[in-house]
Amino acid sequence: MRHKSINLFLVALMLAAGTILNAQDMTESLDFSIWPKGEPNTAYAKYFTGQSYLAPLEAEKGGPVNVTFEPRCRNNWHIHHRSVQVLVCVAGRGWYQEWGKSPVELRPGTVIAIPAEAKHWHGAARDSWMQHLTYMTRVEEGASNEWLEPVADEDYDRLPATCAPQPTAEAEQMLRRMGGAYHAEFNRTDPELMERFHNFAFGEVVEQTADLLDDRTRFICYLATLIGCQGIDEYRALLPAALNVGVEPVDVREIVYQATAYLGMGRISPFLTATNEVFAQRGIALPLAPQARTTMETRRPAGTEAQLECFGEAMRNFWQSGPEDSRHINRWLAANCFGDYYTRGGLRPESAAPGEPEPSAMALRELITFCFLAAQGGCEPQLRGHIAGNYHVGNDRALLIAVLSSNLPYIGYPRTLNALNCIRQVDEAEQGK
Length: 433
What we know:
Blueprint: E1 3-5, H1 9-16, E2 19-22, E3 27-30, E4 39-40, E5 48-49, E6 52-56, E7 65-69, E8 74-75, E9 78-81, E10 84-92, E11 94-98, E12 104-106, E13 110-114, E14 120-124, E15 130-137, E16 144-147, H2 153-156, H3 169-178, H4 184-189, H5 191-209, H6 215-228, H7 232-244, H8 249-263, H9 265-281, H10 299-311, H11 327-342, H12 361-376, H13 380-392, H14 397-431
Antiparallel strand pairs: 1-13, 2-3, 4-6, 5-8, 6-7, 7-15, 9-16, 10-13, 10-15, 11-12, 11-14
Helix pairs in contact: 3-5, 5-14, 6-7, 6-8, 6-12, 6-14, 7-9, 8-9, 8-11, 8-12, 10-11, 12-13, 12-14, 13-14
């Protein structure tokens, strides 16, 4: 076997080799405290494209040499006459190729035994540093190296990126604002999927909706949507990015608390746990400042006032309407859903322009509820009611479609199309009045 992954003592060393995804340029860099970078490879520089470095290991005992390649660096085609070269990739990503054969990807743990007289080259991937150990074995008398022509750029550039998706300029701008940690592991294991997802969600979709959604509102809606669709792993991954783009800790807490009324404690508990864990990691002290604005005595009338703000005068006596055996649920809707949660502080709206009235936080809370319901599915009657509520507090059709479009990468097309149909039904009902 000419190349394979090994599971001997080197594995432990290679697993310790750190690779770091650089969020700024989506290039995988290395932790040189594991395998030394060494000195610039000046003696053989004329046989390399790009910069390489040499770090002999136990050179006085004839030990192997650790060779470090910067991204895109590779050596020329060459031949080892009358000797066998062994490569052991210890960090990063790269390529090895013999003349006339398909390239072989180098990852930590890959071992290549290069037969004598084989014309070949090896080097880093275009988006990653790479380190490999090299040593010669089965060296016969008269052994020598023959350096040949460089690897042509057009041939090298046909090799796929190996460690990270390649973002469009638009997606890269958003990823930079997000801080770069998002999907770091998937970027390594599933670069093709992440390239398409990031370029769609943070490039194409953001560009389509940028006129109506600022970063804070967009990410508030993302978090509400992920709670609604029960995307706990994605919520945990996205929350640090949301905090990086301007979502405040109190915003996050209010989203989770409000979700209690629409999903129940059984479904929001994991999100509360994830939120508190991320806050602890970032040094955010808990509990946050209290935001309750009602008491057990005032919650029902205050909740009715919140319902009136969202839906109009028809809600004034809703809390005491309905069949006697279930009337208590309408009372709870006013007292608990609206009185306990919609009346809370902390979830500030965007500041108004000079001379304009300060916008109500109710518009943002209704937008969050729209996200909860659209993402859940199966709540179309309630979704239509809250679409009307959004219209009543000033969130128009264009904004709701922008939010729904922005959330589509996280909930998929069926639930997005169902929510769009609900918007159309509400519009038709309004026009028919």
